[in-house]
From TrEMBL:
<keyword id="KW-0963">Cytoplasm</keyword>
<dbReference type="InterPro" id="IPR036615">
    <property type="entry name" value="Mur_ligase_C_dom_sf"/>
</dbReference>
<dbReference type="Pfam" id="PF21377">
    <property type="entry name" value="MurD_N"/>
</dbReference>
<dbReference type="Pfam" id="PF08245">
    <property type="entry name" value="Mur_ligase_M"/>
</dbReference>
<keyword id="KW-0131">Cell cycle</keyword>
<keyword id="KW-0132">Cell division</keyword>
<keyword id="KW-0573">Peptidoglycan synthesis</keyword>
<keyword id="KW-0133">Cell shape</keyword>
<keyword id="KW-0436">Ligase</keyword>
<comment type="similarity">
    <text>Belongs to the MurCDEF family.</text>
</comment>
<feature type="domain" description="Mur ligase central">
    <location>
        <begin position="108"/>
        <end position="287"/>
    </location>
</feature>
<dbReference type="GO" id="GO:0051301">
    <property type="term" value="P:cell division"/>
</dbReference>
<dbReference type="GO" id="GO:0005524">
    <property type="term" value="F:ATP binding"/>
</dbReference>
<comment type="function">
    <text>Cell wall formation. Catalyzes the addition of glutamate to the nucleotide precursor UDP-N-acetylmuramoyl-L-alanine (UMA).</text>
</comment>
<dbReference type="Pfam" id="PF02875">
    <property type="entry name" value="Mur_ligase_C"/>
</dbReference>
<keyword id="KW-0547">Nucleotide-binding</keyword>
<dbReference type="InterPro" id="IPR036565">
    <property type="entry name" value="Mur-like_cat_sf"/>
</dbReference>
Length: 445
């Protein structure tokens, strides 16, 4: 009798899991509460996989042997509660796919910087000649690649939601870039629960595995002081000198791993900003552990191009620099963006608030921001927080108005920064849509 695999969510991770499940001999059924995109419907149809969208038929879901839940679906959803009540195992795509591959995985998580670090790590390892895939929260789903591609190793960007659904999965190398309050609406507004979710990345690691982490991050060091992991610890820091790990020595980045030293001038790293130096340290530490040549690491850190929608310079118009940081969906990401601004800044902010506390941005806004443009349906919290700090505050409800207003407020030598600190779902499909609309509006000025 075939085991029944039910997949909740017909997006990238759901459809990838369906393809792998069918290949591995499961009786597969995909169910999506919302509409499934036409492209994915076609893929399911071609592969003769049964599916439904626009709602869940309970008896077709609750007869599962195992359920893969897409990361966007909260545990609080009715159908998930019913599955838990029936004691049916609910796992993530990462957990499911990992059982069908012998590939080595590098898992990267964190509140910010994980996409950049994942892409940079992949860039370094690929340049070093490894047959390596990239997946997780980014690009083609991990399960889909396990079904169709034959990589020896993978770099996976892992969100806390994906880690919530793991049971046995353990990456050979885990990276935690940083932890700051985010998605607290999914964790009963308890920061400790969110921190614990991030650390699930190391829960199954063995003595032969590694955990690379930010030693300057209070939430991370606090957790490590109170909890145990079997993995070998490789810290990185901008403030401490470390015996093992990566650190800053004046204007040089130094990495000591396995009693081998790697030194590189920080000026030569292509990505700008302190936070990107940390991302570079994390990625280079992975490359050292994977035995990539020093020369390749150095060259790859020099020529990496960065990530779309993350501090992406769009255009300079009348000596005003327009910067797209749409991927900044929480306060901490926006903190890094404002921290890296060197010119007076017109800041476009707002969207769906995930329990934000704007307190930590106050000194930066005071020092760097000359005007704020609120782009959201409910801007009260932003107005209350910054109303007395900046001279000019404007509310708009679409990207064209936001960019045109910014152009009027900016003078020669200023920067216009889209760094929303919020999710995008009130006015846009997702942060990519928001970033693309920003770039289009800038190009149309």
């Amino acid at each position: 009798m075939k085991k029944r695999l039910v997949i909740l969510g017909g997006g990238e991770s759901g459809v990838g899991t369906a393809i792998l499940g069918k290949k591995e001999g499961f009786d597969v059924f995909v169910s999506d509460f919302g509409p499934i995109k036409d492209y994915y419907k076609e893929v399911l149809a071609i592969n003769k996989i049964k599916f439904e969208d626009g709602g869940h038929t309970e008896d077709k879901v609750l007869n599962a042997d195992i359920v893969m839940k897409s990361p966007g679906i909260p545990d609080k959803a009715d159908i998930v509660k019913k599955l838990h009540k029936k004691k049916i195992e609910v796992i993530s795509e990462i957990e499911f796919a990992n059982k069908f591959t012998k590939a080595v995985t590098i898992g990267i998580t964190g509140s910010n910087g994980k996409t950049t670090t994942t892409m940079l790590t992949h860039h370094l390892l690929k340049a070093g000649g490894l047959n390596i895939g990239i997946g997780g929260n980014i690009g083609k789903s991990f399960a889909w690649q396990v079904a169709e591609d034959h990589y020896d190793s993978y770099v996976l960007e892992l969100s806390s939601f994906q880690l919530d659904g793991i049971v046995d999965y353990a990456p050979h190398i885990a990276v935690i870039t940083n932890i700051s309050p985010d998605h607290l609406d999914r964790y009963d507004y308890k920061y400790e629960k969110y921190i614990d979710a991030k650390f699930r990345i190391t829960m199954n690691q063995k003595k032969t595995d590694y955990l690379i982490y930010d030693a300057d991050d209070e939430a991370i060091t606090d957790w490590l002081s109170k909890n145990k992991t079997k993995a070998q610890l490789i810290p990185f820091s901008l403030t401490k000198t470390l015996k093992t790990g990566a650190y800053l020595n004046n204007d040089k980045m130094e990495i000591n791993i396995n009693e081998e030293e790697f030194i590189m001038e920080t000026d030569a790293v292509s990505l700008e900003g302190k936070h990107n130096l940390k991302n570079a340290m994390a990625a280079a530490s992975v490359a050292k552990l994977m035995q990539i040549r020093k020369e390749t690491i150095r060259e790859s850190l020099t020529n990496f191009q960065g990530v779309e929608h993350r501090l992406e310079k769009v255009l300079k118009i009348q000596n005003v620099q327009y910067i797209n940081d749409s991927k900044a969906t929480n306060v901490n990401a926006t903190f890094y963006a404002l921290d890296s601004m060197t010119a007076p800044t017109v800041w476009i902010v707002g969207g769906v608030d995930k329990g934000n506390d704007y307190e930590e941005l106050m000194p930066l806004v005071n020092e760097k921001v000359k005007a704020i443009i609120c782009l959201g349906l409910d801007n009260k919290k932003i107005i209350d927080a910054f109303g007395n700090i900046v001279d000019m505050m404007v509310e708009v409800d679409n990207m064209t108005d936001a960019v045109r207003t910014a152009q009027k407020l900016a003078e020669k030598g200023d920067s216009v920064l889209l760094s929303p600190a919020c999710a995008s779902f009130d006015l846009f499909e997702n942060y990519e849509d928001r970033g693309k609309q920003f770039k289009n509006a800038v190009h149309n000025l």
